[in-house]
């Protein structure tokens, strides 16, 4: 393998070992900063349910398997798995069938805080051991499914062939498997000088990000097409953009490409970080357009597209007092730190990372009104079935 090839492997493995949302239950943890994602997911429940209505049901003796990919460590994944299992149960009941046993796989990169997630899981219903599935589902607040964690990258195989009935993945597929090599190579025209994100970047940088997204999503689809049972379905949601121009990354652009970018520039201007150090930090996120996403699904050809749309998710900021600029600033800094803080901490250390997010908070406080009015996330929502 070439040196370039080795570098690619190293950089993929490095990001996979490191990337995670902020674990635990602290102020900047993902568990405490994912209410916006929860809201956006709830607003799309009708689309999820339409996908679940398409799943072909097997005889009740066959266990039913659900997998949430990019589950992270908050309550959102538990809520969604519960919705899926209740909906499928209802479908079995409407047909007058017994309900099958359910298993739910919570999957994310190995650096995900699975401990916090497992502690949030409700206890397994006592009725599952001998009682009927109906009794089990009726037992208040308890879990009616067997749960397991699956560590690994969703851009590769995670499950045995034809073993999963429903794949769900929310707010995760915009995370690239790596920052493209050329974007970090000073000799390349794709070197992202002066920036920490693709938003507003030059054409070569943009094409490198786009190509990485294509490669990654193709790997995801290839793997899932092997793992999904015949008659199974997938519901995928990721950050998206409404512009055809990839250098306009929409809400992600406003967040990472302006305010977060400005906070990095503050550190450089204050002499706390070298400009080169900033330039070689890049957020590995790409918000695709509908067309970007569609082309890759069609090229793979393993899935029938039931629905593919851009959905307005809304603001990523959840605040109690919208007039309180300090609260808005804090919410933005915490929400940003909950998703990319682990990468920043690893790159410049906790102390400088504290300064960076403090500068971000200050800037966001000063732009609170504008942020509340303008910061909107759009999502690509895809409902796919085995072709
Ligand atoms: C914003 S969180 C989404 C969490 C959750 N689905 C929700 O709805 O709140 C994105 C998750 O995607 C995961 N992720 C990113 N790249 C991944 C990859 N290649 N394989 C598996 N998980 C990945 C991250 O570790 C993170 O936990």
TrEMBL record:
* GO MF term (any one): metal ion binding
The cross-references to InterPro entries, in alphabetical order and at most eight, read:
MeTrfase_7, MeTrfase_capping, SAM-dependent_MTases_sf
> Cross-referenced PANTHER family, in alphabetical order?
S-ADENOSYL-L-METHIONINE:CARBOXYL METHYLTRANSFERASE FAMILY PROTEIN
Query: What is the recorded name of this protein?
Result: Indole-3-acetate O-methyltransferase 1
Tell me the domain of life. Answer: Eukaryota
Keyword set, alphabetical order: Magnesium, Metal-binding
Q: Which Pfam families match?
A: Methyltransf_7
Q: Which organism is it from?
A: Coptis chinensis
